[in-house]
Amino acid sequence: MSTSAPPSNRFERRRAETRRALIRAARRILAETGDTSASIQAIAERADVGFGSFYNHFESKTELFEAAVVDALEEYGQSFDERLAGIDDPAELVAAGFRLSARMADSHPELMQVLRRRGLGHIHSDNGLARRALRDLEVGMASGRFTAVDPAVALSALGGTLLSLVELRFARPDLDGDEAALNLAEMVLRMLGVPPDEAHEVARRPLPDSA
What are the HTH tetR-type domain coordinates in residue numbering (predicted)? Predict the structure, then answer.
């Protein structure tokens, strides 16, 4: 069977790669400085694509940077799907999420810098970790694992605490990130209604092995 693709497929692959290159360039800019004032020409050069290619994919820099944030948040969420697929307990999922986030500040610094700079505006978005966290909160409330409150309010508390942890990891690299994540995870579980002794135990369960 021939491995050559029809021209239209090759075109679409190249088009998709150009879009990906622009998004990668925007992600790097967001991670490094958070400054979105770079010119389209500078972004195109950084992506190693032609200036005219930009408008084949995005109407404005605002649209590009928003796509870059969504891309980073979805990668963030997918990393949790891969690592935590075998965990059914909503409390353990919440705790593990905090602990993995603290470690990803070291293993995925670009991604976590984007989250640090732009995550607040996406706490209630329909992509990335937000929709996954909302799902776990709703399951926990429905099962009685968590205290029943407005899930959106619980998500605000959870997301704000997580972003504070990410900020702490970058602002205070001298602190023990794992210990900070453990303590915050335990506090959040208690806030969600998990009994103190159980919250302490759940927050310290072994994390799944890396893929």
Answer: 16-76
CA 41/CA 9 separation, integer angstroms: 28
Whole-angstrom distance, CA of residue 77 vs CA of residue 73: 6
Separation between Cα atoms, residue 190 and residue 95, nearest integer Å: 11
Rg (CA), the chain: 20
Phi, psi angles (nearest 5°) of residue 195 = -55, 145
Q: Per-residue pLDDT for 110 more than 50?
A: yes
pTM exceeding 0.70: yes
Interval 152-205: pLDDT, tens: 999 999 999 999 999 999 999 999 999 999 999 999 999 999 999 999 999 999
Q: Measured at the alpha carbon of residue 51, what is the angle toward residues 47 and 56, in degrees to the nearest 5?
A: 90
Rounded Cα gap, residues 14 and 22, in angstroms:
12
Distance CA 197, CA 176 (A): 23
Q: Are 107 and 158 in contact (CB under 8 A)?
A: no
Cα distances (Å, whole numbers) of residue 91 to 28, 97, 161, 208: 33, 10, 15, 15
Alpha-carbon separation of residue 92 from 13, 17, 81, 131, 181 (angstroms): 40, 37, 14, 17, 13
